Amino acid sequence: MQYSHEIVNNVLVLKLSGDLIGENHGSELISIINDAINEEIVFCAIDINEVRYINSSGIGVLITILTKFRNKGGEVVLIKPSESVEKLLLITKLNSIFFIVPDIEHAFRELVKI
To answer: What pTM does this model have?
Structure first.
């Protein structure tokens, strides 16, 4: 998996690509999350358009990210999951706990409402 991150308008924007297998990069992503929260960033947009596959550890990473932000009064949105990832989110019913939006503009609009 490859990833990049930046803070835009007080929102942590993560862009992930490849396979989200938590044991490979999960601790690095959680470290980025913790750093953002320590800087009082409470909103996160995760672009998963280029993620091909997520295993159970990867799901755990997403849930950990969501929990950390919600515990601080914040929120996480997922941006444009690929078809296979969208099916996984539907099967696991994670689509009911994550906000899923089509693009970064919708992500910012959704986070402003909160």
So the answer is: 0.93
> CATH number of the domain at 2-113, out of 3.40.50.2000, 3.30.750.24, 3.40.50.1820, 3.30.460.80?
3.30.750.24
Q: Which of 6, 15, 93, 19 is nearest to 52 (CA)?
A: 19
Tens of pLDDT along 71-101?
A: 999 999 999 999 999 999 999 999 999 999 9
75: Cβ–Cβ under 8 A, 6 or more apart, which residues? Answer: 42, 43, 44, 69, 99, 110, 111, 114
User: Residue 45: enclosing H or E segment and its boundaries?
Assistant: strand 43-54
Give me the residue label for tokens 């999951």. Answer: 81
Identify residue 1 by its one-letter amino acid code: M
